[in-house]
Amino acid sequence: MESQRTPAILDYRNENGHGWSFYKNDGILRTIDTTIEDDKELIRKVQKFELRDDDMMIAAYPKCGTHWLWEIVNMLRAGNSEYNKKTKGFAMLGMPMFDRADELPSPRVLNSHLNFRHLPEKMAEKRIRTILILRNPKDVSVSYYCMINGFKDSFGFDGTYSEFLDLFLEGKIPDGTYADYVKDWLQVKRNQPDLPVLTLFYESLKKDPIKNIKMVANFIGVSVSDELCEQIAEACSIKKMRTADAQVKEQIFKLSENWKGGQKGIYRKGEVGDWKNWITVAENERFDDVIERTFEGTGIVFMYD
Hints:
alpha/beta; Rossmann fold; 3-stranded antiparallel β-sheet; about 10% strand
C-alpha cells in the first residue's frame, strides 16, 4: 500500500538557482508543476486509461524522435503519406488533457515519455505493440536544452548549456536519468516477454530511413512498397513536418514561445552529431565516462555521428 505521507521535496537547483524541484513517485523523479497531489492524480489517471485492442505505443525519453516516429507510424497505418490532422499531443499520455486521446479514431498511435510502471496498467495484458526509440545521449542533451531554453516560460530554466549538462549527467532534470529510463525498459522486456517491443535507433532511422520504415511496418503488421516508404521518408523530413505543424495540424497546446535562434515550433535540426558544436573536450570526456558507467551491461551501443 502506497504511503500516505507527503513525499519529500528534492531541491536539485544549482548554486545559481537554475534547475528544478522534484518528488519521487514509485522511485521515479517527477517535477512539481502545480502540487504533488495533482501530479500523482495525473499518473493514476494514466494508469487507469482505457486501452483499445488495436492501440500501439511509442515510448521514448524526451528528444529521441517521438514526433518523427509518430508521424511515420500513422502514415504506415493509413497506407499513405498524408499527415494526421492531429498533433501527437492529442495522443501523448502523461501530458495535461491526455484524455483527448479518446477523441482519436482507431487504430490509435499513442506515445509517452513515462516509464512503463506509469503507463496504462493493461499494456501487457492487451499486448500493446510498443516501439522504443533511442538516441545517442549527447545529441539528446543538446536537443533537450534547446527545447527548455526555447520554451523558458514553460520550463523555467535560465541557465547555460553547461549548467544543464551538469544536471543532465546527474539525472536532476525532468524525466530523470536517461540511462535509468533505458534500463527500465530493458527490464520490462525481460519481465514482460509477451509484450511486443521493437527497439529502434534514431541514428539508424536517419541513416537508412527506407530500411527502418520497412522494419517498423513489419513489426506493426502492414505491407508496404518501396515507393510508399520513400514517400513517407520524404514527408517526415524535419522541414516538411515543421510546415505541416504550422499549416495542417490542429494543435492541442498553443506554443507561442520560440526556439533558440528564433525558430518557432517543436522541431529544431534533427541532425546526428550536432553535439560537437556544443560540448567542450573536457565535457565530452566526462560525458563518455558517465555513459560508460551508466550504460554498462545494457548492450546498447550508440552512434554519435
